[in-house]
Amino acid sequence: MTEQLEPVPRPPIWRTALLVLLCMFASLTSFVFSEVGQDPVPLVGMLGILAALVLPVSLCWRHRAPLAITLVVSGVALLLPLGTSTALVALVSLLTWRSSRWEWPATAAVAVATAVTFVRDVLAPSASAAFLQTVLAPPDTPPEALVPLSWWVVPIAVVLTVGPAVGIGLLRRANRTTRLADARAASAGRQRAQLGDELARQRERERIAREVHDVLGHRLSLLNLHAGALEVNARDDAQLAQSAALVRASAARSMDDLRSLLAVLREDPDAEPTMREPSLADLPAMIEEAVAAGAPVSSSVFLDRAETADPALARAVYRVVQELLTNARKHASGAQVRLSVQGGPAEGICIDARNSYLGAGAGHGPGQGLQGVAERVELLGGHLAYGLDDGGATFRVTVTLPWRC
Q1: d(CA 404, CA 344)
Q2: Contact (Cβ atoms closer than 8 angstroms) between residue 283 and residue 307
C-alpha cells in the first residue's frame, strides 16, 4: 500500500530541465567511458546513445510515478553501461513523496544497478574504458593502462553514491511531513478557536434566554392574571370586559411568542429553525390585531403572487409593517394611520405609512424602531425614506424592497 504524504505539486520547469540535461550528460559519459562505448557494435552503440538521451526525459514524471521510473531505469542500467544518475534522481523523488513497502526494494534495485556499474569499471581492461579507473588513476597514467582496484572500492563507491540520495530523500520527506503536521496543527487550532467562540456565543444566548424568561415571562404572567381578574370583575361593564379580554388574549399570545423566541435563542444556530416564520399572508391578521388594540388604522394590502415570495422578504415586510404600526402607536397615539402595502414580482414591494405629526415631544421619545427598519431594508437591498410631509402635518415612512422568490 502506497501512502502519498501530501498533494504533489508540479515541479518548476527549470529544475526538471536542469536535472534532465545533467542526467543525459552523466549517462552519455558513463556510456562513452565503458568498454562497449570504446569499441561499440553499431546497433548496441546506437541503442546505448538513444537510451542515454531518452531515459532522463522520464524525470519529467518523477513526482507522479517515481517507483516505476526508478525500477525501469535501474533495470536498463543493468543491461547497458549508462550509470544510475537517472535512477538516483527518481529514487530521491520516491523517498520524498511516497511512503510504501516498495521504497526499500526500489532502493535495493538502485544499489544493485550502481554496484554493477562500478564492477564494470573495476573489471574494465583499461582506464579509458572505465570511469572509476580514470578518476582513481595516479597522475600521468596512460589511458590504455590498466588501473587495478581493490574489491572494497565497489561497496564504498555504492555507499558514497546511493547513501546521499537516500539521505536527501528521507530529509525532504521529514521536512514535508513536518510542514504537513504544522499545517494540520494550525487547522486544528483554528477549529478549536472556532468551537470555543461558538460555545461562548451559545452560553451567552442561553444566559440572555434565562434573563428574558425570568423578567418578561414573570411580567407577562402577572399581566395575564390581572387582565383575567379584571375581565371577571367587570361583567357589568361590557366595554371594560371586552378590553380586559383583549389584554388577556394579547398577553397569552405574547407569552407564546416569547416561548418561541426563547426556543430560537437556545437552539443550534446552524439547525433548521423551529419557530414559524411570518409570511405575507399573515399581514391582514397582524393589522387586525392592531385595530383591535385600539389603533385607528386605514390599510390597503394588495400583493401579487405573495405565496411565491422569498421567506426572507416576507419576514422583512411583516416585521417592517409591525414596527411602523408600533412606532405610530408610541409616538402618535390616537392619530389615524394610513397604511399601504402593494407590489409583486414585476415592481417589488412598496410600503407606505402615514400618520399625523404631533410634534417632537409626543409619544415616548425617539426610539430605535426606524434604525431597525433601516437595517432590515439595507440587508435586502431596498430603500427607506422618512420625514415630514404635507407641510409638516404628516409623518411619512416609505420602504421599497426588491422582489425575491
Answers
A1: 10
A2: no
Domain that holds residue 121: 3-149
DSSP letters of 194-233?
HHHHHHHHHHHHHHHHHHHIIIIIHHHHHHHHHHHHHHHH
Q: What is the pLDDT of residues 164-178, one digit of tens each?
A: 999 998 998 888 888
C-alpha cell of 16?
A: 526538471
Q: Which amino acid, 62?
A: R
pLDDT digit string, tens, across residues 41-71: 667 778 888 988 999 999 988 888 889 999 9
Q: Are residues 334 and 240 in the same domain?
A: no
| Overall number of domains in the chain | 3
Q: How many residues does the chain have?
A: 405
Q: Strands (DSSP E) along 16-146, which ranges?
A: 98-99
Rounded to two decimals, the pTM is 0.49
Match 505539486 to its residue by C-alpha cell: 9
Quick one: cell of 239? 366595554
Gap between the Cα atoms of 404 and 240, Å rounded: 45
- The cell for 224 is 395575564
Contact between residue 31 and residue 48 where contact means Cβ atoms under 8 Å apart: yes
Amino acid, res. 162? V
